[in-house]
Structures are given as C-alpha cells and as structure tokens.
Amino acid sequence: MTEYLVIDRLDDLIDASRRLGDGHGPVAVDVERASGFRYSQRAYLIQVYRRGAGVFLFDPPPIGDFSSLQAAIGDTEWVLHAASQDLPSLRELGLEPASMFDTELAARLLGHDRVGLGAVVEDTLGITLAKAHSASDWSTRPLPQSWLEYAALDVEHLIDVRDALVAELEEQGKTEFAAEEFQAVLEREPKPPRDEPWRRLSGLHMVRGRKALAVARSLWTAREDYARSQDVAPGRLVPDRALVAAVLADPKSKQELAAIKEFTGRASRTQLDRWWAAFEEGRTTTDLPLERATGGDSLPPPRAWPDRNPEADARLKAARPAVEQLAETLHMPTENLLTPDLLRRVAWAPPVPLTAASVGEALLALGARPWQIAQTSQVIVDAFVDSVQEPATAPETAS
Question: Which tens digit of pLDDT belongs to each residue from 60-69?
Fold first, then answer.
C-alpha cells in the first residue's frame, strides 16, 4: 500500500504549490471536514491532484497560509464533487477557483441514477472506491494511513471522471447547461442566517405554549453558545431529543432536571448549571416567541392553495406535470431543470401579460439560469393557459 504523507508545514506547502503549478490540465480538489463532530465546518484535510504533479494532502490548521497554493492553481479549472459543500471551507482559507467543473452536478444533468462520488467513478471509469471513512472524524490526529488512502483516491480519479463527463455532456447537448450551472454555484451568495434558527430543533412540534417555546429557545441558544466555544457539534453535547424531553418534563429545580433520564448527552450533567440557568432565563423572559414562525416571503404550502388561491392552485397543478415531463424528456431530475420553489412562485403570482418573455424575466429575477428559462418558459405559459377553465354553459330552460 502506498504510504501517504500529510503536508503540515508552510515551507512544504510552498514547495508543493510550485510542483502543482508546473503540472498540466485541470486540478482536482477535495475537502474533508469533521461534520457531526465539530461545530465549525473548517477543512481538516485538503486533497489536491494534478497531472504531471501527483497527489498532495494538506493539513490546514497548522499551515494557516494557503496563498502560495492559490497563486499556483487559482487561475486553473478546479474539478470538485458537490462543490457547494466544499467551497465555503476552501474560501475560509483564501482558496477560490476562477472556474470549476462539478462532477456531481454534471452527473445530475446527465441523468445518472447515482451521483455520489463512488457511484460516478464506478459508472464512468469502472473503478470501485471504498467509502468506509466518509463519515469519520477528520480532526483526528494523526490521521490513519487507511483514511489518507481513501482521501487520496477521492482526487486521483477525478480528472478522468471529468473528461468522461465532458464527453457525455457534449453528446447530450448539455455542455452549456453545465457551464451555466457551474458558474451559478461559484457566484451563489451564502444563505442569510435564519431569523429563528432554534425552530429547527428536532421534536419541537411536541412543545406547546409560548412560555415552553421560550424555554426551548433558551436551551438551544445555551447549547449553541457552548458548542461554538468548544468547537463541538451541538448534538454531541446534548441531543435535540434530550433538550425537548427536558422542556416537556418542566422540572421545578436543578435537581429535578438532573433526574430526567431522557436528558442525556455527554454535557447534560457536567454543564448542569448552564442548562438550569437557561431554563430560568426562558421562564422569566417577557420576549415570548409566537406559536408559529412568521414565514417572511414564504408561500403557503400547496395543500392550502385550493382555499387561499384556487387560480394559482390550478396553474401549479397544470404546470408541474408539464415540467416533470420535460425533465424526463431531457433525461434529468426535475429539480435540476427548475426548482419546485421557482415554479410555485411563478404560479402563485404570474406576470402580466402572460408571455414566455415575461415568465422568463420573472424566473431570471428569482435566480433561474438562462438555459432553464429557455427550456421551461413556454411550457409554463402553455400550462397556465390550459389551466383556465371555461365556465360551463347553462342549459337552456324550456319555454
């Protein structure tokens, strides 16, 4: 078995960057994080491969400065798999591609049944990759050799996969589709923080009453603050179900809280003072949350449309199968042709006058790509027109 070395010194990074700069063709890049173990989404290993240079494994925390790597490969096409997951961690280190090819997104546009990295490698190259360490704690040091081999293989085949997918895209006439999608991923702004992120607490639907919700919010916030300070995934400190169980039990003292058997987690007792302080804060606050979240610009759920907006309901019910049929014809998932949210928004409030151009402008404003608009705008207009029901003619009354 090949022994892989991890570069963890700046001088060695600079040397590796020079060698990567002397390579040729696109650069394969992958990131390993410690999701589920750490609070942050920082990179704990970066793998880079380029033909003529080889594979390099970098340990980001001790290196710190990646400017020499960015200078060496920043203007080269990067090949990533599921780039939207890796780009935020890379950008934290000042690593940013000028252009990129996303093998997962390309596989989706091509209609591949399986789009995980191992599946795409197997489907395009006939090579089977073991995925035994995909959910490992990559903040572990030292990293075992078996993990490093797995990490290296993630990029060693990525350029060959890219070349195979490029040929497939050309054959299906989807080269421009892919180019627009890749650019959209690069230009996508980070999602703004949620107004009330604590409402994502699993099991919160069992909590009733604004005062109880205030306690749940306070507990969630206390756990979040502690998890951030310790760089530990919140659920590893106290699971969601344990927080909800504590709220439902409604303890009257710290001792009663400690006695709740469902209140589990490695920090459930060691940080008992913290959790009880959160209970007291939640119970005494005058800033009580609403029973239900205010949805901002969110639309009502489609099941409510027949009563809330029957015309929009008819438009959506006519357009959705038409778009699904088009996606099937193009051999791609419907959500890659046009996301359901965009179709719902245009169905809820269609432009006036209703034309392919006006629907296209509305979709563009919502973030659709030009290729999506070109494929779907007329289909949507036709479906909306078909949804208009002519009033039934009343039978003549016999004289």
Answer: 999 999 999 9
For residues 124-155, b (16+ Cβ closer than 10 Å) or e, as one string?
A: beeeebeeebeebbbbeeebeeebbbbbbbbb
CA 90 to chain centre: 15
Name the H helices within the chain. Answer: 10-22, 60-63, 67-73, 83-92, 103-109, 117-125, 145-156, 158-172, 175-187, 210-230, 234-237, 240-249, 254-258, 272-284, 305-308, 310-330, 334-337, 340-348, 356-366, 370-387
Closest listed residue to residue 80, CA positions, set 189, 191, 163, 154? 154
DSSP β-ladder status, 6-7 and 54-58: parallel
Residue-wise pLDDT for 30-66, tens only, equals 999 999 999 999 999 999 999 999 999 999 999 999 9
224-227-232 Cα angle (round to 5):
140
> Residue 123, SS3?
helix
Q: Residue 343 in 3-state DSSP?
A: helix
Integer Cα distance of 295 and 304 in angstroms:
15
* CB atoms closer than 10 angstroms to residue 80: 27
- For 86, 174, 278, 302, the CA distances from 45, given in Å and listed in that order, are 11, 33, 36, 43
Q: How far apart are CA 336 and CA 371, in angstroms?
A: 11
Percent of the chain with pLDDT over 70: 95
Taken in order of first residue, the domains within the chain and their CATH numbers are 6-187 (3.30.420.10), 197-284 (1.10.150.80), 302-387 (1.10.150.80)
pLDDT tens string 79-121? 999 999 999 999 999 999 999 999 999 999 999 999 999 999 9
**3-class DSSP state of 102:** strand
Nearest to 105 by CA among 96, 115, 113: 115
List, in sequence order, every residue forming a beta bridge with 54; answer none if it has no partner. 50
Question: Which residues does 250 contact at the CB level (< 8 Å), separation at least 6?
Answer: 212
Q: What is the pLDDT of residues 152-188, one digit of tens each?
A: 999 999 999 999 999 999 999 999 999 999 999 999 9
Dist CA 158 CA 163 (whole Å)? 9
